[in-house]
Amino acid sequence: MGESPATLAEDGRSVLVLDQTLLPDQVRLHRLTTLEDAAEAIRTMRVRGAPLIGATAAYGIALAALADASDRGLEHAASTLGATRPTAVNLHWALERMLRTLHPLPPTDRVDHAWHEARAIAREDGIANARIGQFGLSLLQALEGHRPLQIMTHCNAGRLATVAHGTALAPIYAAHAAGLESHVWVSETRPRNQGLLTAWELGQAGIGHTLITDNAAGLLLMRGDVDAVIVGADRIAANGDVANKVGTYLKALAASAHGVPFYVAAPLSTVDFFCPSGSAIPVEERNAAELGAGNTPAANPAFDITPAHLVTAIITERGVVTPAELERLR
Ligand code: MRU
């Protein structure tokens, strides 16, 4: 899977996204031509993962500008896209950046600048993730442990969740390229099974991996089968608390109990310096029907918060920092 999961089409006026609701069974591109298409793709998780949601939202503003580049049109587009999913801050970061760029321009100049800025956001995500890969590689090279290294991850924080390289998987891809082999324990990530996406893309890259149920993680960590846990993030608060896919917190607790390093890999577009701590992060509550529990009362929080004290380090495009050092990158 060398292609980015979201790219500008050859016509220069539409965007092609890989429809992740069909993966891994079908690999099919889905064309976005309107603001509503972009909002629907994010809302229904055709595109998913914080950085990819941000890039798609930026393209959504460009699509909206084709139809109405007035101040009102752009504000409407930003509020439509901003209401699709609440937790991943990259969405709001990208929308604010687009509006900041376009507002000072006359409406007639906005369309070209919107495509330009959206492409810049996408390109920069790939560059940031490549850097995360290199910083993470140094951490992996320094790890004592099994060979191949045994890495655990959760959800999908790979190429599919970003414009390129992935975040949590970027160090693993970099290690593979450098000849340092790793084997990845991939938890299935109920109820939307993003772990299957991780397994699919690792398989495409020829990297050894094993799918486990979410609840098997504690046993593996207790047994000493894991050298490090690396996850992505949907929003990191200024104090280093991390919102990521539900189930992340339990892995962090078990990693801490068994002395296994717990790394969070994320670009700075995922850090919300205006959010003081994890308790201020909005956690998306998804439709309980995703649990397949029929009429049984069910709750379906899609993310959880891992407190900063359980995070060994955060791997960003500007280096590896402890949660306490995060403010330095502001
Ligand atoms: O609900 P999703 O599939 O959009 O959630 C994705 C995650 O939680 C990822 O782990 C996170 O966005 C990190 S992405 C590089």
Describe this structure in words.
With 330 residues, the chain is an alpha/beta fold. The protein has 2 domains: 8-124, translation initiation factor eif-2b, domain 1 (Four Helix Bundle (Hemerythrin (Met), subunit A), Up-down Bundle), CATH 1.20.120.420; 136-329, Rossmann fold (3-Layer(aba) Sandwich), CATH 3.40.50. Helices cover 38% and strands 17% of the residues. It has 9 helices and 14 strands. The chain has helices spanning 35-43, 50-67, 71-82, 89-102, 107-142, 170-177, 194-205, 217-223, 248-257, and strands at residues 6-8, 15-18, 29-32, 149-154, 182-187, 209-212, 228-231, 235-237, 242-245, 262-265, 271-272, 303-306, 313-316, 319-321. It has a 7-stranded mixed beta sheet with strand order 6-5-4-7-10-13-14. Strands 11-8-9-12 form a 4-stranded mixed beta sheet, with helices on one face. Strands 1-2-3 form a 3-stranded antiparallel beta sheet, with helices on one face. A hairpin with a 2-residue loop joins β13 and β14. It is globular, with a radius of gyration of 19 Å. The two termini are 34 Å apart. The mean pLDDT is 97.
